[in-house]
Amino acid sequence: MPLPSYAIGVMEASVYAPEVFARGLPSALQPSEGHTAPVTGTAVATSPMLSLQAIGLSFGGVVALADIDLSVRSGEIRAIIGPNGAGKSSLINVISGVYRPDRGQVQLAGIDYAQVPTQRLAHLGVARTFQNLALFKGLSVLDNVATGLAYKVRSNFAGQVLGIGRSRGERRETRSRADQILEFLDLTAVRDRLAGTLPYGLRKRVELARALVAEPRLLLLDEPMAGMTSGEKSEMAAFVRAARDRFATTVVLIEHDVGVVMGLSDRVAVLDHGRKIADGTPDEVRNDQRVIDAYLGVASDNEDGAGI
Ligand SMILES: Nc1ncnc2c1ncn2[C@@H]1O[C@H](COP(=O)(O)OP(=O)(O)OP(=O)(O)O)[C@@H](O)[C@H]1O
């Protein structure tokens, strides 16, 4: 049973940057020219936002991850791809602290995870979405998105929903920020709908909104386009890119649709049988013989049947 993203989508107060909203939010469907463009008008920083060194993880006798190194630059969109069972989910679960690796180090902006209890990851600015939808079907879209801030405010979420006591001001603030993210992701028209009544593609976008509302510095997306039509996938890719560009969020995603991944990502790591077999720009990876041998042969199993 996946954890709901609100459980870890909580940030330090410093993550909230009112000036970002004050600048006004653009239509998310007008991404900047070229996805490698810098987030804030400067070059993408070279110091890693996330660094994995020699990660190993086994389940009983099954080696899920073996000696994985991964470096993710600040502001980068970084994809992890590979055939079924390659270790992608295991790796994202290691990054998000759901799994503790048997070996190796995970560092977020230089801070070793081993020194940070899992529940504090959110306070470091990590948020994620899940492969399977984890929205509250009986809550409105707005309230679902507001849960992305639930642990950031002093009153509890029930207090905010009910609008009682000290919660009233926080509730106003939370809902206002949720509204701004809804506008950014072009979801304002469905803000009062119950999440469970939305079509699948929109629900995936609401999940993105919930993960994004606290402006995480690291956003982990677990198959954000799974089950979408090709039109919905392109739209989602544009939203992810726009979110990176606007909020300077570093994005790590796993996704089966290789065609979408290649168009969206700055760099791509390829896993096979728990090992990293290639790592580079989409062009480099596309032309890597080991990737072609290990992955191209199963590319027709991808959701859209696209090769790499
Ligand atoms: N909780 C678990 N218990 C036992 N084995 C596991 C567990 N999670 C993953 N594995 C095993 O670890 C290996 C890697 O699995 P993982 O789910 O990380 O791959 P994946 O690339 O995400 O696959 P898929 O694309 O099918 O989701 C597989 O052999 C899998 O069976």
From TrEMBL:
Gene3D superfamilies: P-loop containing nucleotide triphosphate hydrolases
Any one GO MF annotation of this record: ATP binding
Database matches in CDD domains: ABC_Mj1267_LivG_branched (cd03219)
Any single Gene Ontology cellular-component annotation: plasma membrane
Annotated ABC transporter domain residues: 50-298
Keywords: ATP-binding, Nucleotide-binding, Transport
Alphabetized SUPFAM superfamilies for the sequence: P-loop containing nucleoside triphosphate hydrolases (SSF52540)
Protein origin, superkingdom: Bacteria
InterPro entries, sorted: AAA+_ATPase (IPR003593), ABC_AA/LPS_Transport (IPR051120), ABC_transporter-like_ATP-bd (IPR003439), BCA_ABC_TP_C (IPR032823), P-loop_NTPase (IPR027417)
Full protein name: ABC-type branched-chain amino acid transport systems, ATPase component
Organism: Mesorhizobium australicum (strain HAMBI 3006 / LMG 24608 / WSM2073)
